[in-house]
Amino acid sequence: MSAGHTAVTTPVAGEPVITCETPQDECGVRDVLDRLGDKWSVYVVVELAAGVLRFKELQRAIPGDISQRMLTLTVRRLERDGLVKRTVHPTIPPQVEYELTDMGHSLTHLVKTLADWSIAHRPAIAAARETWDAAHPDSDVR
Amino acid sequence: MSAGHTAVTTPVAGEPVITCETPQDECGVRDVLDRLGDKWSVYVVVELAAGVLRFKELQRAIPGDISQRMLTLTVRRLERDGLVKRTVHPTIPPQVEYELTDMGHSLTHLVKTLADWSIAHRPAIAAARETWDAAHPDSDVR
DNA sequence: CTGCATCCGTACGGATACTG
DNA sequence: CAGTATCCGTACGGATGCAG
Questions:
Q1: What is the three-class DSSP state of B100?
Q2: Is B13 inside any structural domain?
Q3: Nearest nt to B95, CA vs C1'?
Q4: Which nucleotide is nearest, taking the CA of residue B38 and each C1'?
Q5: The domain spanning residue A105 has which CATH number?
């Protein structure tokens, strides 16, 4: 192969092909991961998939104690990307509701796929890790 | 709803439900993201999906100039998780080949789904961003 | 070629205090 | 309640040098 990219070494049958037209192309994958790969975004999507939530509700619903700051940031970014809609009711005390947009809802299928794969392979991965860790007692890889 | 979790506020029709049995459960999603959410793992999977590659080949194939250190780390972690198989040919100079395991190959479908979603919604997201950025001239959210 | 060790800058995220 | 502002520690990742 001339200039190395997406090597066609040993094409596997029945395998979806992820095509990167040009070298140095990110195949679109990097995009999604930059958006959902952070610590909290998926959780926001998951919780909002079930329905409209207020700020505090969202914060309580998300597993793992998200800080107020992080929830604000996360939800703002999702809003900026058109995945979440934010509506403010100018009452006292203020009430702000968050919900997924249509595009946001389309994400749900994606997340479901992720969750399914994870759950299906969790045991196998755990096993692989144990084996590897046993074979490599002192390694900083982790 | 008593103690807030996975609120059942406004269930949406025809929407996959991501169930978290217990509060503070990560629904399995965090697992995958911890594994593929980093900067390079997906690329390794994508390139190896096409066939067996040596270290240098892999490095050249991946878009965005991955450092040698990062490629080593990434590939080691994937190996630890049982997603990548590493075979060493004790020659001079050394020759090391990387390939996906069966489980690794099962990831390809997942990645394809990600890529597809990304490409499909890229324009919409770009538009949403422009709108938002215009409406919020001075914001550190980005 | 493949890989480890080391150093170092930055970006991400947590904690806290303060405002409308 | 729903934020904003600030400070601060750490983990991630890049650059470089050395070794089998």
A1: strand
A2: no
A3: C1
A4: D12
A5: 1.10.10.10
